[in-house]
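Problem 12. The chain below contains 139 residues. Write out its predicted structure in token notation.
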Amino acid sequence: MKDQNCAYCMQGDLVAKFAYPVCQMKTGYLYLFKEQSKRGRVILAYKDHVSEMIDISDEDRNAFFAEVAQVARAVHKVFNPAKVNYGAYGDTGCHLHMHIVPKYKDGDEWGGTFQMNPDKVYLTDEEYEAMAEQIRRAL
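Solution.
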């Protein structure tokens, strides 16, 4: 089931406003978050338009979180953060997705909750693609 107004469902131009595609996984789609003040920040969006993790079976939820862990391992391998934060939001978007956010001790916001979009660091498409390729290889 897809929602015509949902960026994660429709992909393409809607999601391209804030995310760069990395790859399709078994349970969803992996994107680099375009605002890269937390180098390596990604989003894993569930394959179907559901709002809550309680809206999917235990088996599907476990598979989704196994892929969240797989992505986090790749982020650790490629970017070497001191910590990874995780966020599942969607008050307005209502599509199950997980923010996987590397945190660095010498970076801003260390010791605090990450800002959703600090609007500070954007890259070129070539830089996004280079990062996406590193993540793909690490998966």
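Discussion. The CA atoms of residues 32 and 42 lie 4 Å apart. Students who got a different answer should revisit the alignment rule from Section 12.3.
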